[in-house]
């Protein structure tokens, strides 16, 4: 009998080879036998050692299985093995893979709601974020990637605001989808509640960025929601007159001014001023702010500007405020009453400045309409101007009609589509009613004529672009000149605003 050849024993083999009593080549991370049979090796997956030990103990306790090598699966050449013995071995063999522990995705959110939120987030990142960066494509990555990342870091109000605007965008594509209607309202209501609670606790370095971004999305939502108003007039529930916030009575069916626009945009301005000490060092916020067109207001002689005619008769109006006559009505829409108390010099001055500033913003936006400049109007007008809108002052309403007409240049944007026509017609309807008296329409029509012409303008080829000769300004040349300018940004304007505004009085009112 020839002598037995010497061989090296495997003393550090894997447990699977040891359980099968075959030699292991000890190759890491998977030995050759485990690779050959397509099974996990405890060299690579130490977590399967307990299972292998249990299987090895079970195999050792069964005398019928002693010395029987493990075959994980059927292979050609094994036809001689009976089906019964193969089944027995497979039942005793260690599993080829280990099932992960079962964990519930959520214990509070139903599966349907999770799918809706995934749908909304996909809509936001794929489509919605692009629709409010059309004037500043450089900020697309911020709204698409950075903003959701900040929301997922613990900002619930920002997360809900993102889902709300995405639901509103989907709703514009599927207006009869009641689930999207409920989602757009519910998520925005949740965002407003958390946003208000956070503002109440105070703005600091940890929440300044997210509050600014949430305020911006709230303003966007407030504007876009107006698209879904079915009728041009807000009808009262019953026939008759209803008192407004100032106690004045307005006829049922009277056009309703979208004050929520002004409140939400003013909120962005207030949050920015109150938190500028932290926002000024934020690369995200400064990039968003600097992407906006720089305000270049002209306070020159009125008649030398396009909308200068809106200031005609202002001196007489202010004189009437300071020294009201016996026969002058107390306010628009009221019957003739006793003599009013004279307005204070401070109120007369702030009224003049409010009109001058509003008209200057219109003149600036009229030159560069496609850069998103008209959207600066509700954010930059003064509080006094908004008060005069609430009082239904004819001059303030005429200025408002011109602002809405400027939005015609952005009519191709889904959340502004049809806005110019609907809102201008609504404002003009106030002049053609009994609210201001029989002569109001004829008196103010010269100041409303341009707004009506632009709101009703339709190009022959269906293009949204209005020719400069119809628009009243060479906007193409102005916008090209703006692009050629360098070194100008919005940073200086915000610096000035933050210095002029008391931060403790800048906390915005959450819009209704």
Based on CA atoms alone, the radius of gyration comes out at 36 Å
Total number of strands? 2
- Helix-strand makeup class: mainly alpha
- State the end-to-end CA separation: 101 Å
- The helix content, as a percent range, equals 40-55%
Strand order of the largest sheet: 1-2
Number of helices: 22
Uncertain segments: 63-82, 102-106, 231-252, 327-339, 500-512
H and E order: HHHHHHHHHEEHHHHHHHHHHHHH
Shape: elongated
Beta-strand content estimate = under 5%
Mean pLDDT: 77
Q: Main β-sheet: number of strands, strand sense, barrel status? A: 2 strands, antiparallel
Q: How are the elements arranged and paired?
A:
Elements: H1 15-20, H2 32-37, H3 49-61, H4 83-92, H5 111-131, H6 140-152, H7 156-173, H8 178-201, H9 208-225, E1 241-243, E2 249-251, H10 259-274, H11 276-279, H12 283-290, H13 314-322, H14 345-367, H15 377-380, H16 383-390, H17 394-406, H18 419-431, H19 440-455, H20 468-471, H21 475-484, H22 491-500
Antiparallel strand pairs: 1-2
Structure overview:
- The longest helix is centred in the middle third of the chain and has 24 residues.
- The N and C termini lie far apart (101 Å).
- Helix 5 packs antiparallel against helix 6 and helix 9 packs antiparallel against helix 10.
- The chain is 52% helix and 1% strand.
- A hairpin with a 5-residue loop joins strand 1 and strand 2.
- By secondary structure, it is mainly α.
- This is Zn(2)-C6 fungal-type domain-containing protein.
- It comes from Pseudoneurospora amorphoporcata.
- Keywords: Nucleus.
- GO terms for molecular function: DNA-binding transcription factor activity, RNA polymerase II-specific; zinc ion binding.
């Amino acid at each position: 009998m020839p002598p037995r050849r010497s061989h090296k024993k495997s003393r550090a083999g894997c447990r699977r080879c040891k359980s099968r009593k075959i030699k292991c080549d000890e190759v890491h991370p998977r030995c050759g036998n485990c690779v050959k049979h397509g099974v996990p090796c405890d060299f690579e997956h130490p977590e399967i050692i307990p299972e292998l030990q249990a299987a090895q103990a079970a195999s050792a306790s069964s005398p019928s299985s002693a010395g029987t090598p493990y075959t994980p699966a059927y292979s050609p050449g094994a036809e001689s093995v009976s089906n019964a013995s193969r089944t027995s071995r497979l039942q005793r063999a260690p599993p080829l893979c280990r099932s992960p522990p079962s964990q519930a995705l959520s214990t509070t959110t139903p599966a349907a709601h999770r799918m809706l939120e995934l749908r909304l987030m996909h809509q936001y990142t794929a489509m919605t974020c692009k629709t409010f960066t059309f004037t500043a494509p450089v900020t697309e990555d911020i709204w698409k990637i950075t903003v959701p990342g900040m929301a997922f870091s613990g900002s619930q109000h920002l997360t809900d605001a993102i889902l709300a605007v995405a639901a509103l965008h989907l709703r514009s594509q599927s207006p009869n989808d009641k689930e999207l209607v409920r989602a757009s309202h519910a998520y925005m209501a949740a965002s407003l509640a958390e946003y208000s609670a956070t503002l109440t606790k105070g703005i600091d370095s940890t929440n300044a960025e997210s509050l600014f971004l949430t305020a911006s999305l709230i303003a966007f939502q407030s504007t876009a929601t107006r698209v879904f108003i079915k009728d041009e007039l807000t009808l009262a529930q019953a026939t008759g007159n209803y008192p407004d916030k100032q106690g004045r009575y307005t006829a049922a069916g009277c056009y309703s001014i979208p004050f929520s626009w002004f409140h939400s945009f003013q909120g962005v301005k207030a949050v920015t001023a109150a938190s500028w000490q932290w926002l000024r060092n934020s690369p995200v916020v400064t990039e968003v702010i600097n992407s906006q067109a720089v305000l270049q207001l002209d306070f020159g002689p009125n008649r030398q500007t396009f909308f200068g005619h809106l200031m005609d008769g202002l001196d007489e109006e202010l004189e009437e405020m300071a020294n009201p006559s016996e026969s002058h009505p107390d306010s628009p829409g009221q019957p003739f009453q006793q003599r009013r108390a004279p307005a204070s010099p401070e109120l007369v001055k702030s009224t003049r400045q409010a009109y001058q500033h509003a008209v200057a913003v219109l003149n600036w936006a009229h030159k560069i309409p496609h850069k998103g400049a008209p959207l600066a109007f509700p954010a930059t007008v003064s509080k006094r101007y908004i008060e005069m809108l609430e009082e239904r002052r004819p001059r303030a309403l005429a200025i408002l009609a011109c602002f809405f007409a400027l939005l015609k240049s952005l009519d191709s944007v889904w959340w502004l589509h049809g806005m110019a026509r609907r809102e201008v017609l609504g404002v003009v309807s106030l002049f053609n009613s009994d609210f201001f008296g029989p002569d109001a329409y004829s008196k103010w029509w010269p100041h409303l004529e341009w707004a009506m012409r632009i709101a009703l303008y339709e190009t022959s080829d269906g293009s949204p672009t209005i020719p400069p000769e119809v628009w009243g300004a060479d906007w193409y040349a102005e916008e090209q000149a703006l692009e050629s300018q360098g070194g100008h940004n919005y940073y200086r304007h915000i610096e000035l605003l933050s210095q002029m505004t008391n931060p403790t009085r800048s906390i915005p009112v959450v819009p209704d």
